[in-house]
TrEMBL record:
Cofactor names: heme
InterPro entries: Cyt_P450, Cyt_P450_CS, Cyt_P450_E_grp-I, Cyt_P450_sf, Cytochrome_P450_monoxygenase
Alphabetized UniProt keyword annotations: Heme, Iron, Membrane, Metal-binding, Monooxygenase, Oxidoreductase, Transmembrane, Transmembrane helix
Similarity-based family: Belongs to the cytochrome P450 family.
Identification of the protein by name: Cytochrome P450 oxidoreductase
Organism encoding this protein: Cladophialophora psammophila CBS 110553
PANTHER family (UniProt xref): CYTOCHROME P450, CYTOCHROME P450 12A4, MITOCHONDRIAL-RELATED
Domain of life, source organism: Eukaryota
Recorded GO MF terms: heme binding; iron ion binding; monooxygenase activity; oxidoreductase activity, acting on paired donors, with incorporation or reduction of molecular oxygen
Binding site for heme: 451
Ribonucleoprotein is among the record's keywords: no
Entry keyword annotation includes Oxidoreductase: yes
TM regions (residue ranges): 20-41
Amino acid sequence: MAAKFVRETLPKLAASQVAVSRGLLAAGLLFGLWLIGKCFYNCFLHPLRKVPGPFLAKFTSKWLEYKDHSGVRTATLHEMHKKYGPVVRIAPNEVLFSNPAVIKKIYGFNSSYMKTAFYSGFEESGRPVLFTLRDKTIHRDRRKLMAHAFTHSTISAAEPLVAEQVRNLIGRVARQNGAAMNVYAWFRSLTLDIVSSLFIGKAIGALDQDKPHEYMNNIDAYFQLAGLKWQLPWLLPLTWWIPLPSWQHFQGAQHRVYDYGRAAFNEYIERYGRDSGRNDPLKKIIHGDKDLPPLSDEQICCEVGSVLVAGTDTTATVLTYTTWELAVNSDIQSQLREELKTAKVNPGPSGVPRYSEIESLPLLDGIVLEGLRLHGPAVASLPRQVPAGGDMIDAYFIPGETTVSMQAYTVHRNENIFPDADTFKPERWADGGTQQMREASLQWSKGTRMCPGLHLATMELKIVLASLVLGWTINLGERMEEDTMDMVDHFVLMPKGNFCDLVFEPLKS
């Protein structure tokens, strides 16, 4: 009986295995043919086939994702422009530009190019905020509802809140007694305390701690998660269940960022109500615009969480690199000190000058603009989607739905517009710089998507730099090496060494 079963079953199993093998072989052949056809199309028939670029970019974006994870995407693409010119195909359906003449087409006020799905990676559970909104009409209305919070007059009224946190920083510097301090860490603490003071009604207290605040770790993980959600969207849903506490904690970073915003907003309402007498931007967001329905509390909470992230590392990075430039270029530091003294800027007992005394000083203005040019907060490319029907960009026809972008890092190093572009030269901005320079400046982006926080960031940069230069001589710390400040970027810029040690020697009275 058993022998008969074996005799009858084995041939059937063998036939079944042959059928499976043939099926797999056929599937493999079909996939191979499809892959060959796809490669042939991308190389010889694709509308972007004539756009220069690295060979791998014709077939995949994975080479670029590797560079992104390594923190060298921006530097790599800058080298691609040097090799291939102002128009570079960096993925099968993505093209990078560096000619300032196309800025208005891609990013200008009248541009029809929308943000891509890339920005969704910065959302929590699909809840869009001003930064991530793609629909132009919805974005326009949201920006109008929030614009009052970021105007020059609103930020000027909040100056005492900014000055209070700068005084805390000055106290930290004084207590160092000339010992080196990692300004990258302390400037991050400063900007977090400033933005939280303005947008949630109280400073988080990062400057009061001797080690980085836990919220900083959440911000770091926030940007890493955004990259993973864009490049490997399948990874996080598939690995959420992995019972590793560190992995679970990492994946929850974006939730913690926005949950903090919710808790802080609710506490603000409890403490001050919806018609507080505080001169802070959050009150403006709560009131919204008379011509539009106000934001819901949930929308405000999400926006607050987003602002806390956006207002921390961006300004802190520019402040770190610009202060480092003053330490490296002691002659410029001395000139700034002389400008402040000539203008009779008086920091008073607090050590913090009034913004009205320094806002229009030409050298200080040039130093800030040059810091933003060389070390802007968002050096990476800002992707946009070509509208249906396609468009001509810099002599190339680009099909609809193609991703296009420019990166400030490269545009700001155009030698035809910024001679000696890699050198820190604040004097190039005398009288506000040339029209070409202003039109090529992408540090805040352009058009309706321009960073709304530019007035706050500029105030912070100028007040902090003036306060430090009036009180101390700034020098490099012993740990600083030639490559310590080399750029690493994960959408925002940071020093390769993850620190910037500077020494502040008190000026003699």
